Amino acid sequence: AELYAIYILKKHQKNNLGYRLTKKLCSSFTKQSAKTMFVCVLKDNGSKTFYEKYGAKLFKTAKIKIGKKSHFEEYYRWENFDNFQK
């Protein structure tokens, strides 16, 4: 399963909204028999600590081009949804 993106306005961050949204997503994935999930983020995205906090592990880095600039993407994976079952 893939967590494609979560965009939360700055004024609404740090109030557990990201956790609640991701928990709901994991519940839906579980009903569809998904057992793992991944997300791809730009390396310099400070919000990636959210994924790490809830158990995602870095498993791949790739260089990409956006326009004329090169960037690095990092792929994180959850091996299970245990951190979203509470």
Summary?
This protein has 86 residues and is of the alpha+beta class. The protein contains two helices and three strands, in the order H-E-H-E-E.
Written account of the structure:
The protein has helices spanning 17-31, 48-53; strands at 37-42, 57-66, 69-78. It has 86 residues and is an alpha+beta fold. The protein has a three-stranded antiparallel sheet with strand order 1-3-2. The longest helix has 15 residues, at 17-31. The two termini are 20 Å apart.
Q: Tell me about the biggest sheet?
A: 3 strands, antiparallel
Q: State the distance separating the first and last CA atoms.
A: 20 Å
Uncertain residue segments: none
Range of strand content: 25-35%
Radius of gyration: 14 Å
Helix segment count? 2
Silhouette: globular
The helicity comes to 10-25%
Mean pLDDT: 92
Counting helices, strands and paired strands, the structural category is: alpha+beta
> In which order are the strands of the major sheet placed?
1-3-2
Q: How many strand units?
A: 3
Order of helices and strands: HEHEE
Which SSEs are present, and which pair or pack?
Elements: H1 17-31, E1 37-42, H2 48-53, E2 57-66, E3 69-78
Antiparallel strand pairs: 1-3, 2-3
Describe the structure using short key phrases.
alpha+beta; three-stranded antiparallel β-sheet; globular
